[in-house]
């Protein structure tokens, strides 16, 4: 059984290697300088010939002006291309990404490609990418499902000759990655609303992130938001499932800036008025634990609609 599994995995590796070699030959670089990336139906074998035979035409069509075309070419169930740009003291950063469903980082079925013309050492760039991913791609969820394959790559060619300060470059890189991550969630399969969750007052930032992630992944919270139902009890319950100790009697919750829960019990608010606010394209959730805790985290998700079920019920057909 183990040998069979290895053999099947080996075929997948060979497909990737064939595609890498074809790309390397076509653009005259070493195979180890080519990064493979793919997404699709899990368990379905890919025919390398489809890529290899198309490689000469693809390379012939390469052009610096076709950034948006490349961003559109990598989409699957996405409904729109996702790009972001920033300037870091004269050095430019440009990013593209894909992703719409099966999104629950670490990182989840998404591909991200970021390019910069800054002069920057690989080790420093790797460290900045890791920190920036922690504040962006690893803070989003569409459906709580992780994928078998995902990647975000940052490529620096030094063409500008600019050497921006690391702090300035990391800030710009984080802005690009955060924009791309938010675009993924906003384009979540079947989504109508982008949801921003802020958790404050936890013992640590890590604890705050666990609470935010639990809220973001709760189907009951996500369906309530889809129906513009200010059911704050679902938010409190989801937070309680995060495995983080806190006193519910010290919790305040706001929806769209409106106090719906104070000290763990219902606040006085107009449900009709708040329901109208929740009909908007964006929703904000603030979860505050009153006390001495300074941990905080921001997380993004989307609502959960019937369309998500329709898309995934017929994904292969």
Describe this entry's structure for a reader:
The chain has a six-stranded mixed beta sheet. A four-stranded mixed beta sheet has the order 1-2-3-4, with helices on both faces. With 317 residues, the chain is an alpha+beta fold. The relative contact order is 0.12. Helices cover 39% and strands 20% of the residues. The longest helix is centred in the first third of the chain and has 26 residues, at 2-27. It contains ten helices and ten strands.
Layout of secondary structure:
Layout: H1 2-27, H2 48-60, H3 67-73, E1 82-88, E2 91-98, E3 111-116, H4 122-134, E4 151-156, H5 166-186, E5 194-202, H6 205-216, H7 219-226, H8 232-240, E6 251-255, E7 258-262, E8 265-266, H9 271-278, E9 282-289, E10 295-302, H10 306-313
Parallel strand pairs: 3-4, 5-9
Antiparallel strand pairs: 1-2, 2-3, 5-10, 6-7, 6-9, 7-8
Helix pairs in contact: 1-2, 4-5, 6-8
Radius of gyration over C-alpha positions, nearest whole angstrom:
22 Å
The backbone outline, from C-alpha atoms, is: globular
Total strand count, please? 10
Low-confidence stretches: 1-7
- SS-based class: alpha+beta
Helices and strands, in order, run as HHHEEEHEHEHHHEEEHEEH
First-last Cα distance = 30 Å
In order across it, which strands form the biggest sheet?
Answer: 8-7-6-9-5-10
The major β-sheet equals: 6 strands, mixed
Task: Please bin the fraction of helical residues.
Answer: 25-40%
Work out the helix count. Answer: 10
Oligomeric state of this protein: single chain
Strand content: 15-25%
Mean pLDDT figure: 92
């Amino acid at each position: 059984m183990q040998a069979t599994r290895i053999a099947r995995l080996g075929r997948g590796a060979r497909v990737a290697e064939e595609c890498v070699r074809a790309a390397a030959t076509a653009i005259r670089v070493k195979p180890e300088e080519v990064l493979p990336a793919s997404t699709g139906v899990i368990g379905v074998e890919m025919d390398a010939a489809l890529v290899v035979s198309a490689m000469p035409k693809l390379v012939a069509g390469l052009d610096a002006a076709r950034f948006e075309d490349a961003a559109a070419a990598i989409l699957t169930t996405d409904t729109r291309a996702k790009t972001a740009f920033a300037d870091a003291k004269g050095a430019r950063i440009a990013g593209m990404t894909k992703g719409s469903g099966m999104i629950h980082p670490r990182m989840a079925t998404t591909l991200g490609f970021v390019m910069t013309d800054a002069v920057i050492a690989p080790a420093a760039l790797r460290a900045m990418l890791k920190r920036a991913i922690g504040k962006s791609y690893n803070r989003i969820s569409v459906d709580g499902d992780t994928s078998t394959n995902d990647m975000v790559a940052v490529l620096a060619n030094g063409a500008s000759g600019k050497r921006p300060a690391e702090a300035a470059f990391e800030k710009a890189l984080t802005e690009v990655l955060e924009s791309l991550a938010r675009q993924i969630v906003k384009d979540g399969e079947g989504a109508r609303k982008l949801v921003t969750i802020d958790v404050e007052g936890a013992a640590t930032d890590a604890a705050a992130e666990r609470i935010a992630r639990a809220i973001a992944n709760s189907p009951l919270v996500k369906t309530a938001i889809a129906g513009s139902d200010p059911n704050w009890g679902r938010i409190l319950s989801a937070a309680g499932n995060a495995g983080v100790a806190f006193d519910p009697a010290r919790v305040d919750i706001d929806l769209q800036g409106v106090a719906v829960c104070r000290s763990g019990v219902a606040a006085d608010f107009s449900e009709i008025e708040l329901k109208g606010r929740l009909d908007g394209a964006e929703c904000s959730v603030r979860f505050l634990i009153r006390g001495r805790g300074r941990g905080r985290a921001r997380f993004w998700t989307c609502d959960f609609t019937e369309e998500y079920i329709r898309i995934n019920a017929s994904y292969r057909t």
